[in-house]
Amino acid sequence: MRNPNGYGNISKLSGKRRKPFRVRVTTGWELDEDKGKLKQLYKPIGYFKTRPEAMLALAEYNKNPHAIEISTITFAEVFQKWSAQKFNDKTSKSTLNGYNAAYNYSVELYDMKFVEIKKPHMQSVIDQCERGHGTLKKIKVLFNQLFKYALETDIVTKDYSKFVDIGKNESESTRRPFTAEEIKVLFENVDRMDFIDTVLILIYTGLRIGELLLIETANVDIVNRTMRGGLKTEAGKNRVIPINKKILPFIEKRQKEGNKYLIVNHENAQMKYWNYKDEKWSKIMEQLELEHLPHDCRHTFATLMDNAGANKVSIKRIMGHASSDITDKVYTHKDIEELKKAVDLI
């Protein structure tokens, strides 16, 4: 039976393919100047294993032609569409900069399908942000605005941004470094409880949790005692992280497990921030009777390095802080040796 005009079509592609049935719809027409005839322009909807699956997909598409885009549109694309509607030539520079800054802190959400973004994903951005309460508030406002737009355009049916918690605005920092005695307790229990090694790795590298969870084993060089990774700023991305001798055995042991990522979940797949924080970090703190937040590890690293008299530029470079003292991101052999020398002071 022939489909009505404009309905779309299904075709079976040649060759050995896992999904040979292509579904596509007409998006317009253009003149073929060589033949002097109009030519259809197509947009592929998807590829399927069987013709019945393809027919079902085409029927679903025709019920709601916008559903395909809605199901695949990313956080970054929603931000672009919302921005085009929100801003104009009368928008103040400070307003524009504020929203763009909040967006820049949300880099881990860029490629996620918007319909899959829930409270834990946004909370991860908030929890890992090192800025003050004012910045956290701007990030949450951005999330609120994007979900409002998504609701209005039928991309989502529920606003999860309202559940994001940015905490109270406390002028005094709540970050507290681990004491020497607490670090000793961690070392003493590292073989008795899973994932205590990751707390020590965080303390002795200055990495954020999100950065550590993205380190791939291929980017770990045990012989030269370095890793590559990092997020957030240009200075922080893809930086060299020297491995302190105290944590080298932990990292080497995890690398030998042969997984893609250095830190993995029970399925040997990439571990997500909220899984680590809720399932690992919280249990470790409870069992060892410690009261610390994950970011205290990074604060501890900075404190230890400063107390040991480490070179200020080296500290900034290891932690991924932007600095006028760092003119480029090219690491020479001498640079790397200096970083290892600095980190071995603690």
UniProtKB/TrEMBL annotation:
GO biological process: DNA integration; DNA recombination
Pfam families per UniProt: Phage_integrase
Family stated for the protein in its record: Belongs to the 'phage' integrase family.
Organism: Desulfosporosinus fructosivorans
Keywords for the protein's UniProt record, in alphabetical order: DNA integration, DNA recombination, DNA-binding
Name the record gives this protein: Site-specific integrase
Gene3D superfamilies documented for this protein: 1.10.150.130, Intergrase catalytic core
Molecular function terms, GO-annotated: DNA binding
Domain Tyr recombinase: from-to ranges: 173-344
Keyword DNA-binding attached: yes
InterPro entries in the cross-refs: DNA_brk_join_enz, Integrase-like_cat_sf, Integrase_catalytic, Integrase_recombinase_N, Phage_Integrase
